[in-house]
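User: Some background: our group keeps a shared notebook of sequences we're curious about, and every so often someone picks one and asks for a predicted structure to add to the entry. Today it's my turn. The entry only has the sequence so far, pasted here. Could you supply the structure so I can complete it?
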Amino acid sequence: MRNENPKPRLSVKLASFLVIAILMFVTVELFSSLVLIYHYRLNGKLRGDDVSLLSSVSLVTKALVDLGLFPPRDSDEWLPHGMVVSDNSLGWTLRPGKYTWNFKHRANPFGDWDILSTKVTINDDRSRWTGAAANPLKPNIYIFGDSAVFGTGVNDEQTFAYYIQMARLNYNVKLMAVPGYGLVHNYMRFLQVQKDIHPNDIVIIGYAEYYDIRNVAAPSVIRETEVHYKSLFPGDLPPRQDEFTPKAELTDGGHLTIRLVEQNCAVLVDYCKQQDPSRSYLMAVSARLINEMGGSAATRTILLHIDAAHPTLASKSNPIFGVIDKNIELISALQEDFGYFMEDWILYFNDHPGPYWHYAISRKLLSVIQ
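Assistant: Of course. Here's the predicted structure to add to the notebook entry:
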């Protein structure tokens, strides 16, 4: 006997789910737009911290992208390809050359891309170009840090390192920062160039509180990095240049060890399920790495405290500053240290700070570098 009520096929179910999801997205998008329009008419302005359905739209869209049901709204690419390459000790590093780093954004997952193009030049020593060829007769300023310090989202001539180079021609400014790095990466990079650092040089170490979990390759970092990577490539995943990352550990006896771990929760199944280490442990690791760099430099060392990516985490009262070696100078460059608002993120295209931020940071550093 023929079944009078056949079950719908799986493909039909999936198609129905997708149609419903799209209808929900469009409805929320339109409704939230109306809310924002009337909010503007009533109050005369829009603020970044307004509570609206816009955040709900972002969450829904992100969830659908993560599930592979929507194409990504944000992406980026280097032309030519290959600026970031794998490294057996650092996890990843930069390849010398001239690049165009394109940041892409579209208003909806099915729209056309808007593109922000930036110029990035990597020198033969893997530092970013800062405006002048190095002169071996001049002392050097070495700047270590992450993507904010590197200048992700701005051109070569817009980084704070470039501004310092233009203002202090008596130095060679070497921007050693690399996107995605923490203190552990920078410590290992520092060791690679330590032989070239002389007493009349200056070492600047970028530091933000979000570095702490990067230093120990915390479970949350590996999970978030993996999710972000998959969201950029909904289909087949290409090989990752940052497949491995260094992990710093302190033993009970205070011995510092560093090893490479794979940023893959399919490999580190049990580890990815764990909670991050305690705040006190994270601080101890960061302090140790900073002190190792400052103590080994045998030259003037400046710790640049920034709040570029996660300002809510930054604090002048961070206990880490109480255990940093006294010979390391602390320069606080948080938003509260400036008499003007400098939140000039490259909105939509990039959540890194823009040229105004870099100019402000350069003024802070130039006030103590003669």
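Suggested note for the entry: Residues 34-55 have pLDDT under 50 and may be disordered. Residues 10-66 form one domain.
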